[in-house]
Give the backbone structure.
Amino acid sequence: MTDIEMPLPGKPKVVIVDDHVGVAESLAAALRDHTRDISTISSLPALRAALQRAGGKGGAVDIVFLDMAVGSDNALEWLPGLVRSFPAVRFIVWTGYCEFSLMEAGLSAGARGYLVKSAPISEVRIAMEEVALGKVYRNRSVRRVAPSRTPATSRRLPGVDRLVRPTHRQREILLLLRDGATMSEAAEALNLHERTIEYHLGALRKKLGGVTTLGMMRWFEEFLALEEG
């Protein structure tokens, strides 16, 4: 039995790799109480450097949430080399692609888990716990179906009959959060009370079918991409 098949002795040290800062920070905030340390990185070269430096203060990295597309890099191409170089690190592919073939490719490349970004935080925590125990985690919503070859998007979310559009104020708030601002910092930048910020975001989450903050941030990234396209 290899090290990654053995249970970790305590809470894991986690790194999240995603070039969308707001999405990464939202996930980090949701998982922080379930880790001994958590940080975010926005590129694959920076991840390799961080893993090479790890092992000093705070201990080695245990689990990495790895976005499949980080900038112009394809994480599946990097994964075999990362697994060889850092065999004690447990990688979880964390992506917008809900395709069985990609999940199998990621697991075959050495990942210990595969999660679609639309998964609820409760499932993300379960996946992290399972991987920490030495198990392999497959996202519950990924089934063996013909691949669509397009990422899982929010053009039409469950329960929404038309393309949801953020209001001007919601857009302002989401842009600040995407760039790494906290709720209080966004409120200060817009000269609003933090409760007003929460009201605007709550209204948008409701329109999106009750998604989590993380799901809303991912939807916003896809909404902006659709607008630009």
Observations:
- Residues 92 and 182 are 26 Å apart (CA to CA).
- The longest helix spans residues 213-228.
- Confidence is low (pLDDT under 50) at residues 145-162.
- The chain is about 45% helix and 15% strand.
